[in-house]
Amino acid sequence: xxxxxxxxxxxxxxxxxxxxxxxxxxxxxxxxxxxxxxxxxxxxxxxxxxxxxxxxxxxxxxxxxxxxxxxxxxxxxxxxxxxxxxxxxxxxxxxxxxxxxxxxxxxxxxxxxxxxxxxxxxxxxxxxxxxxxxxxxxxxxxxxxxxxxxxxxxxxxxxxxxxxxxxxxxxxxxxxxxxxxxxxxxxxxxxxxxxxxxxxxxxxxxxxxxxxxxxxxxxxxxxxxxxxxxxxxxxxxxxxxxxxxxxxxxxxxxxxxxxxxxxxxxxxxxxxxxxxxxxxxxxxxxxxxxxxxxxxxxxxxxxxxxxxxxxxxxxxxxxxxxxxxxxxxxxxxxxxxxxxxxxxxxxxxxxxxxxxxxxxxxxxxxxxxxxxxxxxxxxxxxxxxxxxxxxxxxxxxxxxxxxxxxxxxxxxxxxxxxxxxxxxxxxxxxxxxxxxxxxxxxxxxxxxxxxxxxxxxxxxxxxxxxxxxxxxxxxxxxxxxxxxxxxxxxxxxxxxxxxxxxx
Length: 503
Description:
There is one protein chain. The termini are far apart. The protein has a 7-stranded mixed beta sheet, with helices on both faces. The chain folds into 2 domains: 23-269, Aldehyde Dehydrogenase, Chain A, domain 1; 273-454, 3-Layer(aba) Sandwich (Aldehyde Dehydrogenase, Chain A, domain 2), CATH 3.40.309.10. It has helices at residues 57-76, 79-95, 97-108, 112-132, 171-183, 196-208, 226-235, 248-258, 283-295, 315-327, 347-362, 395-398, 414-421, 437-446, 479-484, and strands at residues 23-25, 28-30, 37-41, 48-53, 139-141, 149-156, 159-163, 187-190, 216-218, 239-245, 264-268, 273-277, 305-311, 366-369, 385-388, 405-411, 426-427, 429-433, 451-454, 469-470, 473-474, 487-494. It is α/β, with parallel strands linked by helices and 503 residues long. One of its GO terms (biological process) is gamma-aminobutyric acid catabolic process. The active site is at residue 268. Catalyzes one step in the degradation of the inhibitory neurotransmitter gamma-aminobutyric acid (GABA). Keywords: Mitochondrion, NAD, Oxidoreductase. Pathway: Amino-acid degradation; 4-aminobutanoate degradation.
């Protein structure tokens, strides 16, 4: 078994039974061809967890070839057999829920209570798609020409490359791999260099569940090697689908690289989510929603509220209650059951939040709570913060903060609020609180986002779509629409069919 040497970054009280130190290709634990490795650090204390292979172009090509060889046999399996395999994978994940949650916490810094929730969420995509595998359908169309029959057949697109981020290191893999495997596609997973161990643990559990060698592969690479690995996946003729979750900058680059082979692409990119609070809103409900959205995973979620837009009539009440709630958040060791806020993922992330705070204050915003690092806890812990008097020229309104800074702006009427909410090139998620039925319809239709939460901010689940518009990406994940992303629809015209004689 590929057990790595464990560093000081793993607390003495934590046993990581699923920690694996090699990549997973063609049903085997493998090293990089170069022999190189790279360190993975615990963001809570900066200490080494362990090292994993730093794989390059030749290693990636080997993984693609393994998936290509496994593809035909996996696609040929009856859908019911693929469903059984996914069902066993789901069972294995849930049987190891606590171990997976600990891995997420140690490498991503997510508080343990949220890591457990992520395992549940991630596993739900496996169980959902296990059922959907049996519901892949085609169509028989009415023939317009005598002696012909017209069919539409759904078939797997082929080998899929899945490039995933660090903030949900289990769920972002399963949300892609669940529908891919259900459709009959073999996959090559490229996890973030920050969080490879969750991906390798998922691979171990897939193997235990009987997923055949080559159907699920994991390639690990350092920050320096990742661009060449990504280019290899994007430009390979054997890869017919690429799904990426990450920054808009990298997404555009991968999309351009995929153009050379005209492969299918799904992109879930950056966001700048607005949360509007109208005068008619239930303010206590709105505060609870803002807290859940803004401070989940210490503000490091793709659909995290980035701009809080509050109508002038309820601004003061909302801010007072928001500051009170933020001041009560418990920040500390992510393995502590009482902790609600953990560290940011790395120094660049902490520096970005710091820069957004400083820029806002310099341009006239007022900090009501937080605004600095909690150095006594560790260099990557940033205090939950609230700033008011925020305006459109500040970086926090133009860039995705990805940290625990709640930036509050003010608007006067519905039209102005909608205009401010849509004043961004991004359109992943948007939220608003209102007690006016007419306004609910108008604003839902007017927001330029792929997902809208009305009087609710915890909106995602396995049976519905996840995806944005504008520069927040292409394609959808989740539900039956997510499965379609891994299918091709083939048109079959059957001729020479004699018509039934008429008596």
